Amino acid sequence: MELPFSESWKIKMVEPIHKSTREEREKWLAEAYNNVFMLKSDQVYIDLLTDSGTGSMTDRQWSAMMLGDESYAGASSFFKFKEVVQRLLGFKYVIPTHQGRAAENVLFSYLVKEGNVVPGNAHFDTTKGHIEMRKAKAIDVTIDEAHNTQLEIPFKGNVSLEKLEKVLKENKGNVPFMVLTVTNNTVGGQPVSMKNIRETCELCHRYGVPVNMDSARFAENAYFIKTREKGYENKSIKEITKEMFSYVDSMTMSAKKDAIVNMGGFIATNNEEWYEGAKAFCIPFEGFLTYGGLSGRDLNAMAVGLDENTEFDMLQTRIHQVQYLASKLDEYGIPYQRPAGGHAIFLDADRILPNIPKEEFPAQTMTCELYLEAGIRSCEVGYLLADRDPVTHENRFDGLDFVRLCIPRRVYTDNHMDVIAAAVKNLYDKRDKINRGVRIAWEAKLMRHFTVQLERLK
Ligand code: F0G
Fold it and tell me: Are residues 103 and 220 located together in one domain of the fold?
């Protein structure tokens, strides 16, 4: 008999979690203004809010933390970390930051000016926020196929070269850089092919525009290249990631994802001018250049995490679990962005709750219902997260409306996946009875979904 698939790690430490009653959850959700970001974590049974900073570190990472050098300047932890970035990713200059958006803040403070245009394959919300708060414009150039949730193609996160060229042509001299996000989180954790990375960079460079890779899930992207793109089957993840980075001019990294640390990020580049420019913003925002908002132990954990999570077995175990959840949802006929992404399943709320109009935020409604059903905290990646158009102040209903079931790395078992799938099925079975959504009672001007207060309509 062929042995079944199993994890490439075993468990050394566990953290108890607790179930609750529906009555308790009704009360807690109302107290949280129907915004799951406002829940306390002990009110949650299975937490799928994010895979960011929520992974389990390895014994090697924990032991590296004990060796952290906490010197203010010149800490050996920084030099260890820098050596790993140089060796694995191929960049000479490295600036640590406390997380991904801090890397964006530091680099974009130097690069983005009012009136600029920054194209990208569906900028993540903080990335878009950092562009828009500088009164510049973020233009999405993802392929149109990404918007058809039922279409099954291997690299749904790709850049449309036609859309990109149009933006580059129409905004000559006004595009400081392009953002290439791998994997493409906003359209469902969908990968970008090596061919598309190469062609995107060639096109940008032809127009004299540098490319910054938003690399939060670069290793997962490399896994998909290895398993889906011809010519890469026999290459190691480390070889593939090195090639991915060889085409771009810089990277911003949220190490809370693919370096599997609880906190950390960085900027890396081979462009000396950018390094010198960004440095000036690191010191006031993040701190001295050899710690950038992090303690020495964080830098050590990040260095080990980068090395370990660019190994095939770790990535295979991780993505297998997401695909296992997808297979359960397939069994129950539940629509989601196909194929399953690297870090999450993105449920297609428009199809699951057809009775809820856009104006009543179907995905946010479903996020609330899923919490009430089983204490599962998911996250709306849809019309709320899209914010209002900065010029017209209208809600942006032109994108996709997803409920993201985001799987933390090495945290839950496949039994938890079974519970999640069953809870989603229960909701799906009673979808005809869910007829009213939510209304915004209060919202922030930018990145409103974190703090929005909502009323459930009756
Ligand atoms: N870029 C991408 C593609 C991201 O997914 C994130 C964060 C960031 C940048 C910002 O990094 O959180 O370290 O400041 N994404 C998390 C998520 C929060 O839940 O998808 P950060």
Answer: yes
